Amino acid sequence: MEYYNWILAFHVMSFISWMAMLFYLPRLYVYHTEFKDNYDFVEVVKIQEEKLYKFIGIPAFWATILSGGALIVLNPALFKSGIWLHIKLTAVIFLILYHLSLGYFRKKLLNDECTKSGKFFRVYNEVPTILMIIIVIMVVIKPI
Fold first, then answer.
1. What is the average per-residue pLDDT within 106-131?
2. pLDDT tens per residue, range 121-140
3. Total-model pTM
4. In this structure, what DSSP letter does residue 79 have?
5. pLDDT tens digits for 49-77?
6. What distance in Å separates the CA atoms of residue 114 and residue 80, rounded to the nearest whole number?
7. What value does the mean pLDDT take over residues 27-48?
8. What pLDDT, on the 0 to 100 scale, is given for residue 23?
9. What is the reported pLDDT for 25?
């Protein structure tokens, strides 16, 4: 337990980095779809999408998951502290699925095969916000 707070701090920083990618990548998808006729612009956006997903998103994802797992292993009594952790972990599972869906859409956009609109990605961009609200409330307030 000596390093628990350091792992917790790393977990929070990793989560913030992961959320930054989850918030910004769909915004790039909006630009990508709405300016698809501007070849040079889309080529730059494709590079941004790839770098954001591969070099920020994936490392932050794994850092968040592994550090969160370490926190649970170091303190398994968390599972007995109420249902809040179960709700949080359920939201995290949905966040993981959302992350994977962004990777799917990135590949579709890269190959010019995506039929989703900018409006779709604007709405889809709200999913991580809702999940983050649930996660933060469960961790900080522990209402249940």
1. 97
2. 999 999 999 999 999 999 99
3. 0.93
4. G
5. 999 999 999 999 999 999 999 999 999 99
6. 44
7. 97
8. 97
9. 98
* Helical residues (DSSP H) of the chain, grouped into ranges: 4-34, 39-51, 58-74, 84-110, 118-124, 127-140
* Cα distance between residue 7 and residue 143, in whole Å: 24
As a whole number of angstroms, the distance between CA 79 and CA 83 comes to: 8
Among the listed residues 92, 51, 35, 91, the one whose alpha carbon sits nearest the alpha carbon of residue 68:
92
d(CA 135, CA 89) in angstroms, rounded, equals: 8
Distance of CA 83 to the CA centre of its chain: 23
CA distance readout (Å), 137 to 88, 108, 124, 142: 9, 34, 21, 7
Contact call for residues 25 and 56 (beta carbons, < 8 A)? no
Q: Which of 133, 91, 135, 110 is nearest to 25 (CA)?
A: 110
Which token pair is 67? 């550090």
How many CB atoms neighbour CB 128 within 10 A? Answer: 22
Rounded distance, CA 56 to CA 20, Å?
9
As a whole number of angstroms, the distance between CA 18 and CA 70 comes to 17
